Each structure stands twice: as structure tokens, then as C-alpha cells.
Amino acid sequence: MKFKEKDRYTFQDLIDILYILRGENGCPWDREQTHTSIRNNFIEEVYEAVEAIDTQNNALLREELGDVLLQVIFHAQIAESEGAFNLQDVTTEECQKLIVRHPHIFGDTEAKTAETVLENWDAIKKKTKGQTSVSDSLEGVSPALPAPMRAIKLQKKAKDYYGNTKQDSFVLIRDIIHNDKKPLDRKTYGKLLFELCNAARIDGVDPEEALEKHNTAFIREIKSKEFC
């Protein structure tokens, strides 16, 4: 099927092209995809967009944002074919969320600082999601997040119960490492990493970003040794 060639395409053109690809006479691969089958594609595209942000590569970011946008439309069309929801339902719900969570713009609430905006956002989110306890908030943190990112979110939400200072975390880490009575198991390594994330959080360091930067430096170091 021919599609009119243009110098510039619109958001609607992208939607229409995907409808054609997933239509009766469309692409066999596109037609057979499910939410599950393209799950990892979604993750990959988001991380590639993040790479473009980290490297400040605008050309790559433009390309990768297009790929992320395609994934959003793809999932919405799959859901529509299953009678679950459609793309307009997605945009409607997101617009409603933005309006409700910005009462200082669309309502009568005042918020003169970014910190206040975040506090209001969190309070409204808890209310709209029916989160009445700390455990409700903790269970609301997606388990699909990278583990260090999830740890940071859990620590912030449980601050009234998890009051470890950076020094507390370092003491726990030291005690675990120097306890040579038994080998460290998965549970213990988990606790070590959790406490290390807490120390990094208190210092204002993103552990996910810190480790990735070190990964890159490690590759550079090995490469320099290979060619010296």
C-alpha cells in the first residue's frame, strides 16, 4: 500500500501508518505482536533515549523519542484491538492527571517553589490512588524499576520508619563485610546494596547513574591497557 510521501509528517500520520502495518493486509510481524512480545523493545527504546540525553546528542534524541512514541502508540493499538482501551483514553487520562496534580496552575492552590509542587504532587497521588498508609505507598512503587532506583524511592517513602543516616548505613555495611562467620548470600548482598544506595541518596548521588559512569570508566581503563 502506498503512503503519501511528505517533507513533514504529523502525529496522526504516525498513528495511521501503524494502523496500516497492523491492518488486515499489513505487516505479518506487526500484526502478531502483543504487549508481552514487545515489552523489552519498550525498555530498550527508553534506555536508548536516555543514552542520547546523557551524551547530549540531539540528533539521536530526536530519533529515539520517535521510537519511544511509536511504542506508546503500538501498545495503545494492541489494547484497542483487544477492546481494552485506545490512544484517546491514554491521552485523556494523562491530561486529567496533569490537571489534578497541578492545582497551583489549574486550581486555587499556591505553590511557589519546586519542592512544594513535589509535596503537593505526592499528596494528591496518594489520595487519588487510595494510599492511606506507608505500606500502601511502598507497594505502589513499581517492582519493574531498576533495583537501585526502586530502593531510593522506597527509602524516601519510608523515611518515618527507615531513619538510617549515612553513618548508620556505613556501620551496617562494615559489620556485614567484617562478619566472616559465614559466606555472604544473596539476601546479605541485597542488604549491602540497599544500604549503599541509602548512603548515596543522602549524599545526593544517584547510585544508578554513578554505577553506569563507573562502568564506562572501567571500559575505558581496560581499553587503555589493551592498547598501551
Shape: globular
- Would you identify the CATH H-level superfamily of the largest domain? MazG-like
- Tell me the structural class: mainly alpha
The CATH architecture designation of the largest domain is Orthogonal Bundle
Rg from Cα: 23 Å
Question: How many structural domains in the coordinates?
Answer: 3
Order of helices and strands: HHHHHHHHHHHH
Terminal CA distance: 56 Å
Strand content: under 5%
The CATH topology of the largest domain is Helix Hairpins
Please characterize this protein's 3D structure:
With 228 residues, the chain is mainly alpha-helical. The chain has three domains: 11-85, MazG-like (Helix Hairpins); 90-130; 142-226, MazG-like (Helix Hairpins, Orthogonal Bundle), CATH 1.10.287.1080. 68% of the residues lie in helices and 0% in strands. It has helices at 11-21, 28-32, 39-54, 58-81, 87-100, 103-106, 114-128, 134-139, 147-157, 166-178, 186-202, 207-226. Helix 9 (147-157) crosses helix 11 (186-202). The longest helix is centred in the first third of the chain and has 24 residues, at 58-81. It is globular and about 70 Å long. The model has no long low-confidence stretch (mean pLDDT 93).
Entry keywords:
single chain, 228 residues, mainly alpha, Helix Hairpins, 3 domains, 12 helices, 68% helix, globular
Task: Describe the protein's topology.
Layout: H1 11-21, H2 28-32, H3 39-54, H4 58-81, H5 87-100, H6 103-106, H7 114-128, H8 134-139, H9 147-157, H10 166-178, H11 186-202, H12 207-226
